[in-house]
Design a protein that fits this description.
alpha/beta; Rossmann fold; two-stranded antiparallel ribbon; 10 strands; 28% helix; elongated
Length: 193
C-alpha cells in the first residue's frame, strides 16, 4: 500500500544520504525510483541531490509553480516507477503536498519526502507544515548538538559567526551558514534567555 512519508530533521542530519540509500535499494532490486529536488538549490549542481559524505545522483527538479500530480502521472505513463523521492521538501508549496498526496491515493505510488522541519527562526516551512498535516508516516532523522543532545533547531550565522535573527526564510547554504543545535543552545544563540 502506497503512503506519503515525511523524513524530517535539521541541517546535517543525513536526510539526503538516507534518500540516496533508499533509492539505491530500489534500483538494486530491479525497481525504478524517481528523484526530485528543488530547482533553485544548486549547491550540488543543477538537478543533483548530493550528501556531505560525497555521494550524489541526478534528479529532476521542481519549482513552486509545477503541478507535481500531472508531472508524475505523465512520468508513470512512460514506464514503471516504484517510488518517488523528494529532497528539500520544505520548499514544496502546500498545494504541491496535496498533489503528492493525490499521487499516493490516486496513482498508487509511494512518495518519500525528505526535508527540514523548521527554519533558522524556529518557524515551520510551508511545505513542512503541510507534510506534518498530511503525511501517512513521519520519521525524524536525528542529529546532535555540540552538547550531545538531540539537535532540533538550526541557527543561521553571519560571516563573523553570530546568529542572525531575521532575514528571508530561504537562503541556500551549508555548514558555512547553518549550525544545528538543541533548543536550549538555539535559544542561547539567538539571545532568548
Amino acid at each position: 500500500m502506497a503512503k506519503l512519508y515525511f523524513h524530517y530533521s535539521t541541517m546535517n542530519a543525513g536526510k539526503s544520504t538516507g534518500l540516496l540509500q533508499a533509492a539505491h535499494n530500489y534500483r538494486e532490486r530491479g525497481m525504478t525510483p524517481y528523484l526530485l529536488t528543488a530547482q533553485f538549490d544548486k549547491r550540488a549542481g543543477d538537478g543533483r541531490i548530493a550528501s556531505r559524505i560525497g555521494i550524489g545522483e541526478k534528479a529532476d527538479t521542481f519549482s513552486d509553480t509545477d503541478d507535481l500530480f500531472s508531472r508524475l502521472a505523465a512520468r508513470q505513463k512512460e514506464g514503471p516507477v516504484a517510488c518517488v523521492f523528494v529532497d528539500e521538501s520544505q520548499f514544496l508549496t502546500e498545494s504541491q503536498v496535496w498533489q503528492l498526496a493525490r499521487v499516493v491515493d490516486d496513482l498508487g505510488l509511494p512518495v518519500m519526502c525528505f526535508g527540514l522541519r523548521v527554519d533558522f527562526r524556529g518557524k515551520l516551512f510551508p511545505g513542512s507544515a503541510a507534510l506534518l498535516a498530511l503525511a501517512d508516516e513521519m520519521r525524524e532523522v536525528r542529529t546532535i548538538c555540540h552538547c550531545g543532545k538531540k539537535a532540533t533547531m538550526v541557527v543561521r550565522m553571519d560571516a563573523e559567526g553570530k546568529a542572525l535573527l531575521d532575514g528571508a526564510q530561504v537562503q541556500i547554504g551549508g555548514n558555512e551558514t547553518y549550525v544545528s543545535l538543541c533548543r536550549r543552545h538555539w535559544r542561547e544563540a539567538v539571545g532568548d534567555s
